[in-house]
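Hello,

Our lab assistant flagged a job as stuck in the queue for most of the afternoon. It eventually completed. Since we weren't sure the result was trustworthy after the delay, we are filing this so someone can double-check. Below is the sequence as submitted and the structure that was eventually returned. Let us know if re-running is recommended.
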Amino acid sequence: MEAALTGRGDLTLSDEQQDFVRSVRDFCARECGPQRLRELTNGFEDLHNEEIARRMAELGWLGITIPEEYGGSGGTFLDAALFLEETAKGEAPIGAYAVTLIVVGTLNRFGSEEQKRRLFGAVTGGGALAIAMSEPDSGSDVASLKASAERSNGDWVLNGSKMWCSYAHKAEEILIVVRTDRGGSPHQGLSMILVPRETAGLTITPIETLGGTETNELHLDGCRVPAEALLGSEGGGWTQLMSGLNSERVILGASALGLAQRAFDEALAYAKERRQFGRPIGSFQAIQHKFADMATDLAQARLLVRSVARMTDDDPERMLPQEASMVKLASTELAKRCALEGMQIMGGYGYASEYPMERYLRSAVVTTIFGGTSEIQKNIIAKTLGL
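-- returned structure --
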């Protein structure tokens, strides 16, 4: 079973899109095989390799959603979803790209001409961007954040702390959500400010996790950036965040879908080869039913991801709280389930670090947490139902 195409092709994709998927798949198979991947990721500790990112950038793949006038490919959001799914399935070590794509979407909607030219140029060259929202005491409740930015001699001066900032240590610049006005409701007075990684007063501290060192804690101690670093309007941060939720959740969902497919494929190959009681374990009905359930769920999740990506392409300004949350919920929970089932099917070999399934499980677990937990997604879906 292939991640984005079946043996008969995919009638929902254009010929050009099918060719694109095949090209990405071939690249991953050629350049990111199991032995090579260990080298590229320093033993799976560093999941973003700048050289692989640069080579993909040269092929025009990292600028998929960037307009041609800024050096991008001017592709669709569906194209981006296809790319994310295929690179996740192919284990391409470009971990920073998903969050980069989230920031690119915000820049497309609210960035100034200078910001777009500078940062889009960095991305199309293989560079990464990051976004910082969560804080030590502010996770799902984003509006409770306390990090601040104040005007000083024409500049912005930022102070406070941020948590769980994925790939900040790889980013050219970090889009930081801060409070610029403490009056009014918690949702008012939030703004987005771009801060270069090397800015004085910004300290980036890696956080050790099950998945390696992909996320960070940020300390802002008098970080000074020019007034032009403000993204969009002062005080418009909450609205700007909400406008990007469609794309953010599809981005995370498409990546999780690729991971789910990878875990499924590994387990399926094992079940066909592993023999017990004189026959392949895949011939036992208990195992067959696991694969039947997972295959059905993968097909459903893929249709959901692509449908919402197309809806976003059709009307980028339309808010899709229900549909986008369904994508995030379904795909990330599926990634976790496929990895868990894969480990169960593989038994002790699935648990052993010599095989990749335990690594897939470590990667999958966090997908139901970042970008809005599964519980938050369910709350949103229930609210759209009038509950």
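-- support follow-up --
The delay was a queue issue, not a problem with the job. The result is valid. The longest helix spans residues 285-314. The first strand starts at residue 128 and ends at 132.
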